[in-house]
C-alpha cells in the first residue's frame, strides 16, 4: 500500500512535456540555422566530434532527474505490514438517488451535487465507522461495499452522475433491498441506512414493504430530502449549457417536486428521522449527534501499518541522473566512436 505525503508537488511534472517540446523546437531551429550557414558535409568537417545523439541522452537524463526529484518531494510511503486492528463504530450505508430528477436546480447547484456534498461532509465527521455507497434510479447499483477507506468513498462519491444507470425512474425499494445485503451478519454491528433523495418514488407500496423487512434485520433508516416542495424543471444540458427542459409525452415541461411525505413515512417506519437537506451544516450536525448517541460495536478491520518514508531513494536517483547529465558531453566518446554503433562515419 502506497501513500503520498505532498501530492501537490505532482503538478511540477507538468514541466517535463514543456521541456520536451522546447527541446524539439530548438533542434528544428538549430538545423535550419546550420543549413543556412553551411551544408552538412562542411559542418561535419568543422565539428567532427559533434555527436548527433548525445543531446537527446542529456535531455533524457535531465528529465529523469527532475521526475525523481519531484517524486522525492511527494515522499511516497509504503505500508510494510498488514495488520488487524480493533475498531468501534457503526455500519453506515448511503443510498443516493441518481435519477434525472436530481438534476433540478431548485437547490444550488443542483440536487445531486447537493446530495454528494452532504454525504461528503458526513464522512468528514466520521472517525472509525464503516461506510458503503449505493447509487439508485430505476434500479440499485452497488457503488462501494462496506469499508473504512474514507478516501476511496469520496472518490466513488464524486464520480456519481445521472448517466451511470441506464434504467431511469426512482425505485427506493431496490436501494433498501440492496443495502440489506451490505451488512455483515457475522458481526452484529449497529446498522444505519441514509437515503438521500428528492422523494420521487415509482414503487411506494413496495418501498414500505422493503422498509419493514429492513427494520426486522436491525437496520435503522434515515432519509435526507434534497430539493424544494414548489419544484423545478429538469434541464437538459450539453457542455454545461442548457439546451432544453425535460418534457412529458404531452409535450409539457416536467416539474419535479420534493416529496417530503414519502421520505418522512420511510424514516418513521424505519425507526429513523427525516432530515431537511437544504442547509448542509444543520443536516450534518444533526446526523453527527444521532450517530454519537448510538452504541458503538467493536469490529475487526485490516489496514496497512508501519508506513516508511521512501523519498531518499527518489532523491538519490534524481541527483544521480542530474550528475550524469552534467558530465555527459556533447562531443563523441572516443571508444564509442571506434565501435561506430550509430554509423557516424567521418568524411575524408
UniProtKB/TrEMBL annotation:
SMART domains noted in UniProt: VWA
Keywords associated with the record: Cell membrane, Membrane, Transmembrane, Transmembrane helix
Residue ranges occupied by any VWFA domain in the UniProt entry: 91-270
Matches recorded under Pfam families: VWA_2
Transmembrane segments: 6-26, 55-74, 311-329
Gene3D superfamilies assigned: von Willebrand factor, type A domain
PANTHER family for this protein: LEUCINE ZIPPER PROTEIN 4, SPORE GERMINATION PROTEIN
Protein name: von Willebrand factor type A
The organism of origin for this protein: Allomuricauda ruestringensis (strain DSM 13258 / CIP 107369 / LMG 19739 / B1) (Muricauda ruestringensis)
Amino acid at each position: 500500500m502506497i501513500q503520498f505525503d505532498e501530492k501537490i508537488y505532482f503538478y511540477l511534472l507538468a514541466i517535463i512535456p514543456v521541456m520536451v517540446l522546447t527541446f524539439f523546437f530548438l533542434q528544428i531551429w538549430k538545423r535550419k540555422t546550420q543549413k543556412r550557414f553551411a551544408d552538412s558535409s562542411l559542418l561535419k568537417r568543422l565539428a567532427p566530434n559533434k555527436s548527433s545523439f548525445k543531446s537527446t541522452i542529456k535531455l533524457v537524463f535531465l528529465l529523469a532527474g527532475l521526475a525523481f526529484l519531484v517524486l522525492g518531494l511527494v515522499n511516497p510511503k509504503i505500508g510494510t505490514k498488514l495488520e488487524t486492528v480493533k475498531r468501534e463504530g457503526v455500519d453506515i450505508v448511503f443510498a443516493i438517488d441518481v435519477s434525472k430528477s436530481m438534476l433540478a436546480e431548485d437547490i444550488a447547484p443542483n440536487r445531486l451535487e447537493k446530495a454528494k456534498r452532504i454525504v461528503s461532509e458526513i464522512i468528514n465527521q466520521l472517525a472509525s465507522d464503516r461506510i458503503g455507497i449505493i447509487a439508485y434510479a430505476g434500479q440499485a447499483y452497488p457503488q462501494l461495499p462496506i469499508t473504512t477507506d474514507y478516501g476511496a468513498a469520496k472518490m466513488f462519491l464524486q464520480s456519481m452522475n445521472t448517466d451511470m444507470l441506464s434504467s431511469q425512474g426512482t425505485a427506493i425499494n431496490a436501494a433498501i433491498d440492496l443495502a440489506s445485503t451490505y451488512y455483515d451478519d457475522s458481526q452484529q454491528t449497529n446498522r444505519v441506512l441514509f437515503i438521500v433523495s428528492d422523494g420521487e418514488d415509482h414503487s411506494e407500496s413496495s418501498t414500505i414493504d422493503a422498509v419493514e423487512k429492513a427494520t426486522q434485520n436491525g437496520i435503522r433508516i434515515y432519509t435526507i430530502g434534497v430539493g424544494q416542495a414548489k419544484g423545478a424543471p429538469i434541464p437538459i444540458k450539453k457542455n454545461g449549457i442548457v439546451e432544453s427542459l425535460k418534457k412529458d409525452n404531452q409535450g409539457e415541461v416536467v416539474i419535479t417536486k420534493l416529496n417530503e411525505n414519502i421520505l418522512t413515512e420511510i424514516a418513521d417506519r424505519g425507526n429513523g428521522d427525516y432530515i431537511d437537506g437544504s442547509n448542509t451544516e444543520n443536516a450534518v450536525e444533526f446526523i453527527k449527534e444521532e450517530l454519537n448517541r448510538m452504541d458503538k460495536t467493536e469490529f475487526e478491520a485490516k489496514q496497512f501499518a508501519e508506513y516508511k518514508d521512501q523519498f531518499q531513494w527518489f532523491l538519490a536517483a534524481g541527483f544521480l541522473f542530474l550528475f550524469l547529465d552534467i558530465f555527459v558531453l556533447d562531443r563523441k566518446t572516443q571508444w564509442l566512436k571506434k565501435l561506430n554503433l550509430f554509423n557516424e562515419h567521418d568524411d575524408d
